[in-house]
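During the second half of the funding period, the structural biology subgroup turned its attention to how the target accommodates small molecules. The most pressing case was NDP, which had performed well in the primary screen but for which no bound structure existed. We therefore specified the complex as follows and requested a full 3D prediction, including the ligand pose.
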Amino acid sequence: MSATIIDGKAFAAEVRAKVATHVAKLAEQGIKPGLAVVIVGDDPASQVYVRSKGKQTVEAGMESFEHKLPADTAEADLLALVDRLNKDPAVNGILVQLPLPEHLNEDLVINAIDPAKDVDGFHISNVGLLATGQKAMVPCTPLGCLMLLRDHFGSLSGKTAVVVGRSNIVGKPMAQLLLRDSCTVTIAHSRTKDIEDVVRGADIVIAAVGRAEMVTGEWLKPGAVVIDVGINRLPPVEEGAKGRLVGDVDFASASAVAGAITPVPGGVGPMTIACLLANTLTATCRANGLDEPEGLTA
Ligand code: NDP
């Protein structure tokens, strides 16, 4: 069997276009969504993400506010900025780029964000709302995976799903979303026994592990739908070259067994920023008492 490739790049472009259309409608009512991104320090990967987020925010017709703070910023100063952004009516979404430098308490900073503006969905209130099936801001990467799955299957009801990875950012919220869509969900992690057998029982496999090409075709039930969240750079084959980007799934062997699979790059990655824009739009609609955009929320 040769798997259908789930084109996250194309789907993300559709999501961004939908967002831009809604934003244009809001403009007619004098409303312009604003996303504030706060970055502390000069981690090169984070700088790239933040630049890309800013660019795509503007392309969607939204206002982008970038706050670059030095690596030695005091916690009190960061909290004061978050407080100002919470109170600023031009700001509908706030994202503090993680990881923060070690001297800053990430939980404290994230939980200082107004939950209604928490477009990353990491605030403890949003975690609780999601877990209890209430209206929450949903973390962008799992939301992107959910959109791809809904698009592929229509309804997810009754499917068995295995999420490999139990991080707060991906694995746990992913499992909650699948549960909400009436999947039978198992969460696997580094202590799971006979993990291959666990994964082999699933109609849907989400790999969010951070281990290059760990999940192989032998782990999969024929026809399973595989969503590969992993982004890993392999060592370069020659000096000076860049290593290849691969996921947590061994694409070659998995695509011979799976029914459908996301590639890396071009699968889940582009969905993450698209969902950040969708979340900013959702937060803006909620803040203004307007209907939420259809198909862009969980
Ligand atoms: P974390 O490191 O926070 O979590 C990894 C999880 O994988 C943990 O729960 C860990 O288990 C589990 N794990 C580690 N090794 C094994 C193993 N050998 N067998 C089974 N489970 C294992 O990672 P994240 O969730 O933040 O990210 C996961 C991947 O997704 C990374 O590659 C990351 O780069 C990528 N990512 C991609 C995004 C995108 O936009 N596409 C966004 C966010 C992340 P335990 O808890 O037991 O230690």
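Two results from this model are relevant to the next phase. The chain has a mean pLDDT of 97. Residues 140-270 form a domain with the Rossmann fold fold (CATH 3.40.50.720).
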